[in-house]
Amino acid sequence: MSQVTPEVLWAQRSSKTDAEKNFVYLTISVPDVPKENLKLDLKPTSLAFQGHSETLKRTYHLDINFYDEIDVENSNIHHTARNVELKLRKKELKEEYWPRLLKDAAKVQFVKTDFDKWVDEDEQNEVADDDLSQFGGMGGMPGGGMGGMGGMGGMGGDFGGIDFSKLGGMGGGPGSDDEEDEDEDDDMPALEGEEDAKGDAKVDAADAPKADK
Description:
Layout: E1 2-4, E2 8-13, E3 23-29, E4 38-43, E5 46-53, E6 58-65, E7 70-79, E8 83-90, E9 111-113, H1 133-136, H2 151-154, H3 177-186, H4 192-207
């Protein structure tokens, strides 16, 4: 069974005065890895991740050290069928961007710029704040709990202080209620009045005289 390093996309914003505008976007590409097969350990200067995909027969492993410290307690995570997305709050309020994501200056192949989210440093104030709307709309789970996360596959209960109550809104994937609702709409039976109208139309057509040839 193969173990691979997943692709990591990143982008960032910075602010010297507003902590909520001073963060790093991180997307770990791990398709078909269910939440119960995830292990994530987020610390102020590092992130360790492991995930297993039964369908792809593949285990993903990632261990990185950040360029600078992050505020773990004010960082968020969002899991989808294709990836794990994180919004990491930078610890130090600073106008300048981080020069890179990793502490080590050596270039690595698996870390790439997320051009869908990247904004140049001098243009970031002109961009809307909701360019990652799923983080803004991730409400708490019913009762404040995590539902069936089950400790996320043996993470030992140490989530590094990350706010997993904001993991709501993970639906919408294959087999979700949304798809079931759409299927039901497609198969809606005709209304009673419509059926009668169709029946009358068939009778009228049968009784109509055929034109002489």
